[in-house]
TrEMBL record:
Gene3D superfamilies: HAD superfamily/HAD-like
Enzyme class: hydrolase
Name of the molecule in the record: phosphoserine phosphatase
GO molecular function, one term: L-phosphoserine phosphatase activity
GO biological process, one term: L-serine biosynthetic process
EC identifiers of the protein: 3.1.3.3
Active site: 19, 21
Keyword tags: Amino-acid biosynthesis, Hydrolase, Magnesium, Metal-binding, Serine biosynthesis
An example Gene Ontology CC term for this record: cytoplasm
Pfam families xrefs: HAD
Organism whose genome encodes this protein: Nostocoides australiense Ben110
C-alpha cells in the first residue's frame, strides 16, 4: 500500500488548507443564522444533502440564503458568539507555526464569520462567501462569486502560489462534497469527521473530534 505521507517528506514547508464549517469550527454557520430566521430545519436538510454531494452547492447555497431575506444583519454578532473552534485547532496551529508551515481557511460559509476567527488566530489567507445586506438587513442573496468546490480549489492553488509552495506540499482538510476538488488537487487529502463520499475519496480519514490528530501522523512521516 502506498504511503500517502511519503511525498510530503521532501518539502521543507507545507500549506495546510482547511474547510471551516464542521471542520475548523463545530457548527454550520448558515444554520446558526437560519435559526434566527426560523428556517433552521429547512436549511439544515439542504445543507446535509449538499454535503453528501446530492445537490449542486451553488444552487443549494442560494436557496438557503434566500430564507434569510429580511433578517437584521446584526444577528451575526449573536452567531459569532455561538461559534466554537474544533478541538485541537490551537494545537494544530501551534505545530504549524513551530515548523514554519502556512495555514489557510476556505469556506462555503461567510467572510463575516470566518474573517474574525482567522484574524484572532493569525491566519492570513481566507476565502469565503459574503451575505448581501441592504438597509441593515439581509437581502437573501450572496454578494459576489460563490465559493463552491471549484472556488475552493482555485483558492488552494492561489494561496500555494503566494507562499511559493508546490501543490505537492499542500494538505487539504474537509468534510463535505464541496471540498472534493481542493482535496483532489492537494498533495495530501484529509477527510475530517466527513461524509462517506469524502472519506472514501481522501488519502486519510480522521474520525474526529480532534483535528490535531493529524499532527502526530505528519511528525512521523516527516521524521
Amino acid at each position: 500500500m502506498t504511503d500517502p505521507f511519503a511525498a510530503l517528506a521532501g518539502y521543507p514547508r507545507l500549506l495546510i488548507v482547511s474547510d471551516v464549517d464542521s471542520t475548523f469550527i463545530g457548527q454550520e454557520v448558515i444554520e446558526l443564522v437560519a435559526r434566527r430566521a426560523g428556517t433552521e430545519e429547512e436549511v439544515a436538510a439542504v445543507t446535509e444533502a449538499a454535503m453528501r454531494g446530492e445537490l449542486d452547492f451553488a444552487a443549494s447555497l442560494r436557496a438557503r440564503v434566500a430564507t434569510l431575506a429580511g433578517l437584521p444583519a446584526r444577528v451575526l454578532d449573536e452567531v459569532r458568539a455561538d461559534v466554537t473552534l474544533t478541538p485541537g485547532v490551537h494545537e494544530l496551529l501551534a505545530w504549524a507555526a513551530e515548523e514554519g508551515h502556512a495555514v489557510a481557511l476556505v469556506s462555503g460559509g461567510f467572510h463575516e464569520i470566518v474573517d474574525p476567527i482567522a484574524h484572532s488566530l493569525g491566519i492570513r489567507y481566507v476565502r469565503a462567501n459574503r451575505l448581501a445586506v441592504a438597509d441593515g438587513r439581509f437581502t437573501g442573496e450572496v454578494s459576489g462569486p460563490i465559493i463552491d468546490a471549484a472556488g475552493k480549489a482555485v483558492a488552494l492553488r492561489q494561496f500555494a502560489a503566494r507562499e511559493d509552495i508546490p501543490l505537492g506540499a499542500t494538505i487539504a482538510i474537509g468534510d463535505g462534497a464541496n471540498d472534493l476538488d481542493m482535496m483532489a488537487l492537494a498533495g495530501l487529502s484529509v477527510a475530517f469527521a466527513a461524509k462517506p463520499v469524502v472519506a472514501q475519496s481522501a488519502d486519510i480519514a480522521l474520525p474526529g473530534p480532534r483535528i490535531d490528530d493529524l499532527v502526530p501522523l505528519l511528525r512521523l512521516a516527516r521524521g
